[in-house]
Amino acid sequence: MIAVILGTRPDIIKMSPIIRSCEKNGVDYFVLHTGQHYSYEMDRVFFEELGLPAPDFNLDVGSKSHAEQTGLIMTGIEKILKKERPDVVLVQGDTNTALAGTLAASKCYVREGSSQPIDVGHVEAGLRSFDRSMPEEVNRIVADHLSRYLFAPTEKAREYLCREGIPDEKIFVTGNTIVDAVRETLFLSKKRADTLRDLGLSCDSYFLVTLHRQENVDNKQRLKGILDGLAQIHERAGMLLVFPIHPRTERMITSFGLKLKGFQIIKPLGFLDFLQLESHARLVLTDSGGVQEETCILNVPCVTIRDSTERPETVDVGANIIAGVDPVSIIEAADRMLTCSRSWKNPFGDGKTGDRIIKILTPM
């Protein structure tokens, strides 16, 4: 039996091809949702839009400090694993859910009285920003070093894992499930969603902005500088900044008393609507790792508002530039990406990653 553990928007999206593959191939599995993302817009809508079965278990942990949230998730997962006794647990990415799921599984056993821990499979293994001030970097490193199966999206990710001494036989270069998810969902989104019309937008007439990372939005001066830089980009290009605002970011902007100029603020979107906005944007400015991948796959130029990235492949192919958080640097990066070609090749695989992972875990 496979336990699929998820807890955030990116988890749901990136685990969806694995869940579909389990369904298609008759694999025994269950889904455990930690509730790390805790609003309808941030999680449940994704299950509905992606046509996924409701989670078998939901811990409803919600927003907490890193330590408290991770501890509560571990406690809840441990109880379920001891009851269900799966053979392998799958975690995804770099969240507190991935960290807690990995730690809990590593301390549980496949059978009562057994000394064999439950195997962990890390989906999207081997990503590195080389910045341990980011909580996500710590989470992904721990998950990688405790996992039995490391599903690396690219050869570069495999290389990073090998450098850290992880045995090659544990590493499988599978591609990234985000390619599967984008391809599966883009056609559906075009049939079901007309987001641009609803927002009064047209193709290539706007820039799309996302901001949510703690290091960017919890620091007043840093957040003010980012917003000022984005406002200047709006003035220079004359294009609207469409901003599906994350609850945390909205809360901090209000708390700091900051002003927004040139933005069309909208509520968080489901994946179908967000794909529509991404695929038709002239440029995307973001601090999200997943959005860097999605824009690369969609051939939409991206500016990353961070000092580092764990997706260097997007930069290598010319789809993305790391701007940092200085307003001048953000403006210069936007100018460069607005003149770039959109002819790069997607580096994240062929869209068959979910099936590939399930085949590795359930060989005939």
Secondary-structure blueprint:
Blueprint: E1 2-6, H1 9-25, E2 29-33, H2 40-49, E3 57-58, H3 66-84, E4 88-92, H4 96-106, E5 119-123, H5 135-146, E6 149-152, H6 155-163, E7 171-173, H7 177-192, H8 195-199, E8 206-210, H9 214-217, H10 220-237, E9 240-244, H11 247-256, E10 263-266, H12 271-280, E11 283-286, H13 289-298, E12 302-304, H14 312-316, E13 320-322, H15 327-338, H16 353-361
Parallel strand pairs: 1-2, 1-4, 2-3, 4-5, 5-6, 6-7, 8-9, 8-11, 9-10, 11-12, 12-13
Features:
Rossmann fold; 2 domains; globular; 364 residues; single chain; alpha/beta; 15% strand; 6-stranded parallel β-sheet
Identify low-pLDDT runs: none
Mean pLDDT: 92
The tally of beta strands, per DSSP, is 13
CATH C-level category of the largest domain:
Alpha Beta
- The CATH architecture term of the largest domain is 3-Layer(aba) Sandwich
Domain unit count: 2
Helix content: 40-55%
Strand order of the largest sheet: 3-2-1-4-5-6-7
Biggest sheet architecture: 7 strands, parallel
What is the CA-atom radius of gyration, in angstroms?
Answer: 20 Å
- The total count of helices amounts to 16
CATH superfamily of the largest domain: Glycogen Phosphorylase B
